[in-house]
Write a structure and sequence with these properties.
By secondary structure, this protein is of the alpha/beta class. It is built from ten helices and nine strands. Helix 4 runs parallel beside helix 5. The protein is globular. The relative contact order is 0.13.
Length: 278
């Protein structure tokens, strides 16, 4: 049976490819974006199977109204893909309050509003799958990514708690953690060239140079392949809570977790002392 999708951030990048793949196999999609003019070609090709909807996920009232419209239009919701988001870059000292709040409003609160709006429909159906686009940046960190990491690490914890809360209603939750993908004209995006950048302080110029030298070292994945992987994921009876999309990330994660465990082990004596012996 075909599925009904609700996808945020559908106008470009991975979100656009997810919508294309779902439509190509006969599913129906409510495709949302801040501007939907870029979805006109999909409407021309797929007609009523795609419902373009203008949506700014930071507007909670608009999110609830848009989810309701999609659910009433198609009669149900099966797959909710929280994809809308962006990356704010800058050293922690460089970030303004507005930049940090805007990052969290879109990446974290926007996702929460979509989840809260969709869950009543999924619970009533006793079925559905919430797919949260996180990032490798939700597991590991790099300099100048503090704001982006904060938003993605928050999403990781939120969705893990959510999965335990809604499992009894037949609702599944998966956090997708993509590595680097060629989402800009077939190229791996350069975060320091294409991201939102805080006003720079010369004190961190050396950090920027080192990060720039590292950019692009991992192979850029094919967004179309990621979309096919997502189709496989949403068709599983028992999907994973977390899954990495891309190559080159898994060894880095293994090293990061090994380092964390080793540090906790090495400082067990201090941990015990902090307890006070009671």
């Amino acid at each position: 049976m075909s599925k009904v999708w609700f996808v945020t951030g559908s106008s470009r990048g991975l979100g656009r490819r997810f919508v294309e793949a779902a439509l190509a196999r006969g599913d129906r999609v409510a495709a949302t974006a801040r501007t939907v003019a870029g979805l006109d070609d999909l409407v021309a090709r797929h007609g009523d199977a795609v419902l373009p909807l203008v949506l700014d996920v930071t507007d909670r009232t608009a999110v609830f109204a848009t989810v309701e419209r999609a659910a009433k239009h198609f009669g149900r919701l099966d797959v909710v893909v929280n994809n809308a988001g962006y990356a704010q870059f800058g050293a922690v000292e460089e970030l303004t309050e507005r930049e940090l709040r805007d990052q969290m409003e879109t990446n974290l609160f926007g996702a929460v509003w979509v989840i809260q709006a969709a869950l009543p429909y999924l619970r009533e159906q006793r079925s559905g799958h919430i797919v949260q686009l996180s990032s490798a940046a939700g597991i590991i960190t790099m300099p100048l990514g503090g704001a982006y990491h904060a938003s993605k690490w928050a999403l990781e914890g939120l969705n893990e708690a959510l999965a335990a809360e809604v499992a009894g209603f037949g609702v599944k939750v998966t956090v997708v953690e993509p590595g680097t993908f060629a989402t800009r004209d077939g190229k791996n995006p350069d975060p320091l060239a294409n991201g939102h950048l805080a006003r720079t302080d010369p004190a961190y110029d050396d950090v920027r140079r080192r990060l720039g030298a590292m950019t692009g070292k991992l192979p850029a994945g094919d967004p179309a392949a990621a979309a096919q992987a997502l189709l496989t994921l949403v068709d599983l009876d028992n999907p994973p809570l977390r899954v990495i999309f891309g190559v080159g990330i898994h060894p880095m994660i293994q090293q990061v977790y090994a380092d964390r465990l080793r540090t906790w082990d090495e400082w067990q004596e201090l941990s015990a002392a902090s307890h006070g012996g009671t």
